[in-house]
Amino acid sequence: MGDVTFLHPGFFWLFLLLPLAIGWYIWKRKKQTATLTISTLSGFKAAPSLLAKLKPVLFVLRLLALSAMIVALARPRTVDVSSKTKTTRGIDIVMAMDVSGSMLARDLKPNRLDALKDVAEEFVDNRPNDRIGLIVYAGESYTKTPVTSDKELVKSAIQSVEYDDSVLQDGTGIGVGLATAINRLKESKAKSRIIILLTDGVNNAGFIDPRTAADIAKEYGIKVYTIGIGTNGNAEFPYSRALNGRFVYRMMKVEIDEALMKDIAKKTDGKYFRATSNSKLKEIYEEINKLETTEINEMKFYNYDEKYRPWVLLALGLLLVEVIVRKTIYRSFI
Q1: Residue 221 pLDDT > 90, yes or no?
Q2: Best mean pLDDT range from 5-14, 29-38, 100-109
Q3: What string of DSSP letters covers 78-135?
Q4: What is the CA radius of gyration of the chain?
Q5: Which of 276, 159, 173, 290 shows the shortest CA–CA distance to 225?
Q6: Which of 26, 30, 65, 252 is in Cβ range 3.0-4.6 Å of 318 for a Cys bridge?
Q7: Are 202 and 211 in contact (CB under 8 A)?
Q8: What angle do helix axes 258-267 and 210-219 make, rounded to 10 degrees?
Q9: pTM to 2 decimal places
């Protein structure tokens, strides 16, 4: 009965009356049969009959019937709970990833781009009720995945992101990246629309000024969270390719236009973060996840299966047996 609950468990206190009933039965037992006073019993010595020995069973049947009735009064039942959720305040999110060559720097492990992909994928898992899109940018930008509720599609797109100078012109076009993200959201009917814009450098490419793009985002009511990724000081950057096609690294100074990133966030009522390590990057995405919460109505449906009927039938059956035996076998029993 591990899954059984009781609607009125207070009735179990009635079990405390059973010991009193047993005591009363023992005290009154001798008075429940007829007695005859004679001078001597020497002529009546005989072993008690089996019926006499079994007569207390009648009382036991009555106690069992009362016990079953108490359980029935407590209303045992099982419950099957099902729930349905309805999102009342959806959020559309576009992640704008910098995929310039500097994202291969090794100050995050194994490099900035791979560290970002792992954290971004976990972020998607934590937003089951929102729609998410992905754009990538370097000197140019394009939409990797439009805003969608298909989380597996988004995660697959994130994992497929690679640095490829044959696809995108190298450089850091923060303005074009932000503008492309705005285009993905400007027609959205969601209650809340946000962009997570990540870069590791300074705006040195593209034909759109990042501050102008921020003004456009503000006009559309789109909030922009900006993230600067890169350690403080120097880091190993790829600066050329060897004959075998692999990158050659050297120590270079990390430069991030934090003033610009802070300005974009401030204009759009967002917030700027600096990710100097893998753990810090993860903490930033967790904080954004907490800042942008989705309101959900959860409806629970309870299906109760009442279990008191078998106990009532058991109690009635025991009482019926007790009455029949008392009125038949023990009817004229002394």
Answers
A1: yes
A2: 100-109
A3: EEEEEEEEEEEE-EEEEEEEE-SGGGG-TTSSS-HHHHHHHHHHHHHHT-TTSEEEEE
A4: 40
A5: 290
A6: 65
A7: no
A8: 20
A9: 0.64
